[in-house]
Amino acid sequence: MYRTSLLAVLVACAGEPDPTHTKPPTPTPTPTLELPSETEALESAGFTVQSGGFLFATMEGCCDPDANCRGNNVSTPYGMHAVPPAPNYYVEQHGIVDDFGDPEPGTMTEFRLREDEALVLLGETPPPASYFGFRSYLGQREGEDIVASLGASLNHLVIGAQRGTDDIWKQPLAIVTTADASVEQSVTEALVASGWDPAYIHNDRITHEVTRMGLNQLGDSFFTVLRVAEYADPAAGAAWQANHGLRVLRLTPEVEQAVWEPHPWPELPERGTGTNEDAWLASLDALDTAIRETHAGVEPLATEALPYWRETLECIDDVFRCTGDLRDRFIASSPQFALGPDDFIVVFGVNHARTGKSNYSSFAVQTIANQRGVAAITSASMPGSTAAWLPDDPLTDDLYAWTIARDCAPHDPDRCLEVPTTCPGAPTDEQLKVVFRAYLESETGAAPAAEEVQWDRLLLYRGI
Length: 464
Fold this sequence. Notes:
Elements (H helix, E strand, L loop, with lengths): L5 E6 L26 H7 L2 E5 L1 E4 L21 E5 L28 E2 L5 E7 L4 E13 L2 E6 L4 E2 H8 L8 E7 L2 H13 L7 E5 L15 E11 L2 H9 L3 E8 L27 H14 L6 E4 L1 E2 L21 E5 L3 E2 L5 E7 L1 H4 L4 E8 L5 E6 L20 E7 L10 E3 L12 E9 L17 E5 L3
Parallel strand pairs: 1-13, 10-11, 21-22
Antiparallel strand pairs: 1-6, 2-13, 3-4, 4-12, 5-12, 6-10, 7-8, 7-9, 7-12, 14-24, 15-16, 16-23, 17-23, 18-21, 18-24, 19-20, 19-23
Helix pairs in contact: 1-3
């Protein structure tokens, strides 16, 4: 039997407080929520059940002076588990996602897990969208930020492939996150016993090879991110986010369990198909020329956005760490710049969703000091934006061009992104950058390879 609320289950281990804690652990009351029928089956499997919550990040703390919003993607609002502490432990504050909004009292969006714990998400997938994905992350290790995805994403392509259908929207969904195969099996069997169809149950695995599990200060902290982009019906998407019904449970074994089958290093989808966007290069160059001619007599600062990425899992021990890597996402960034009151930037490039190199793409303005996403334009809005420059080019709708300015009045208001001087924007002397993203090439189930896409371009005009 399937319940339409979306339940998230987190499995933890019982045990005495660890003496390495920096302050005496004290019991914390957890929210009192009505539990669905899965609870009885999970308790019968030997788990103590605690209730948590689920939130979509509001970014309400992102404008605080010392905030760090990790380059949040404003076109894919982040959904997160809010987890109660293990029995006899207390709520901790770690810092990775603290600025993204307050969870329910008695819960935390960044948490520690023992190796016999699990995360389980139960309910429905969102309404139809260009992209949907879920991934658990390593947050901090001994106080140092790592921010590393822990394998391939459970995205809409993976879910569809496992189910043998593309129709995965508004359908039953169960995600079981574990560090051990035997724990995964126990939780899965309990879900099936409660009435869940095994076809709706999917796995999100954490490998022991790169993580340090445990509830004390030596254990890594973890968090989860659920992303959705470009709802086919924006109103339906907004309604789902506002009334998602997602819930989190933490399950603690009544008796501490030995770990017998730790998950190994996962298989990761390879980037690249052998196809590229060279067929669009001549049109892109023509667009470049046309934009320059529009502002003839003024020499712009021209540059390409340079791609950067971190290799999933391998980056955990790298000196640069992982900076929020995701196997699904190609990302590129412009150099830093200040945007004065009369300055503007024209950003332009290939719409990677139109060429088939991604399911959706976007560009966004981001602050440097707080790493705060200000505003974004996604691929669904890009067709038609280059018609004024390339009216006769048959590939014009596969390209895009947009203006970024403090005041859009002197520009085409339908093709201009305004950056305010107050939050969520930034003062005219604060450094900004433009970040470009392309999510999920269907043929590979990974991000497009950097060498197979045309890199986005920018022309910065000062004081026109």
